[in-house]
Amino acid sequence: MAVLNQIQPEKVFHYFEEISGIPRVSLLTKEISDYLVSFARERNLDCRRDEAGNVIIRKDASAGYEAAEPVILQGHMDMVAVKEAGVEKNLLKEGLDLEVNGDSISAKGTSLGGDDGIALACALAILDDDSIPHPPLEVVFTTDEEIGMLGATMLDVSDLKGHILLNMDSEEEGVFTVSCAGGVTVLCHLPYETEELKSAALKVRISGLSGGHSGTEIHKKSANANILLSYLLSGLSEKVGIGLISMSGGEADNAIAASAEAHIALKEEDIAAAESFLRNVFAGRQEKYKATDPNMRLEITVGELRKRSVLTDSSTRKALLLLRFVPNGIDCRSRENPDIVQTSSNFGVLRTKEDSLELLISVRSSVEQEKKDLCARIRLAMESLGATVEFTGDYPGWEYRPESKLRNVMCGVYRQLFGREPRVEGVHAGLECGLFASKIPELDAVSFGPQINNIHSTREELIISSVQRFWELLLGTLRELR
Description:
Elements: H1 10-20, H2 30-42, E1 46-49, E2 55-59, E3 71-76, E4 98-101, E5 104-107, H3 114-127, E6 137-142, H4 150-154, E7 164-167, E8 175-180, E9 182-191, E10 194-207, H5 225-239, E11 243-249, E12 260-266, H6 271-288, E13 297-311, H7 313-325, E14 329-333, E15 341-352, E16 356-365, H8 368-383, E17 388-395, H9 405-418, E18 423-427, H10 432-439, E19 444-447, E20 452-453, E21 461-463, H11 464-480
Helix pairs in contact: 1-3, 5-6, 5-7, 9-11
């Protein structure tokens, strides 16, 4: 029985409910891809599907819009499927159970897939309604966005004629995203030598930092535990002689490290001075980061005097120097729009392996040359100390356009409809727009969407009134792109 059939816009919510009945977990999107192809064939719309399962559906311009430039509408098919403990639903094979709670739609015991099911629903509603005025449309539905934008990466755009892209994959109403970062992971290994020494030891642990996503939260300038640990150890090595035993910190290259620890060897008579120095320096860091990391704490544990495998003096010096060379945080903001972080790096992971120190660094930039320049600086610094450097997972960014016809049109429509200004922002993380921009020269794009709260969780909810306003904005934009 239909749950959303009384909600306006009727066609949008009709299609949202239909696709919510189709399992569409990442890597298992054939069924939803088949549905889109059948939809196009039933309406005699031109359709192409590629080996990745991406689907492109074309619709001719409505009357009076034949001379308008084609517009690309775009969203992704897959969703992040999670469920509450005890829920027996098989999300690989079963659809969702929708429910309406006042002004919101959610799914019983599972994530909703509003990201990016609402884009599919709006696009289908437009394709299925000949009364809506619009330019020629090229509607692109991509696969596997949630696990690395795999569909958009493989998409052949050579037959797309449009240079205007409306990406409907944002989750905050009233925000127009106009740039995104490209990125690459830097993997660094510094070989080291060890020796057996009889020494005392300290375990130094930093924890309780706020952490967060290194793209969307880098602008908060919160503390990075790996950087903080390197700062403490470098200072301590100048105060008393130390040898590194092991270090570890962070969980992923794209996450700001919330904790880190080191085991260090030192003389027994230096323990008291070392503890005092570390606590004094850490207190200064607590003061510096009291607004962003109020719960940061330092734990120091004293180990017994015994023989240990310790990095040699030379290896310890190289390791500590290497850590101080690692760039971290905002490197550059957009010159045209200083609110947008343009280039950054994040020292995400620190590990001592069997015979080397391993670092993982995430580099992001919406300007390809700046990304390359920062990577080159890291390589030079690391290799100067004898480390090896690899670059993996490179993906393109989407640079802010100082002049954008689409952005101007959308801002004007938004003001006319709602009597206020939208927020125009860049996101310091990867979006499919970056891949489209790398493949289509001079692409003019905006990413926008209705309000979706708590995405990728069982608390996900799609706000109905926001969808209604988003629909007005989408139709108004198409109407103005004459």
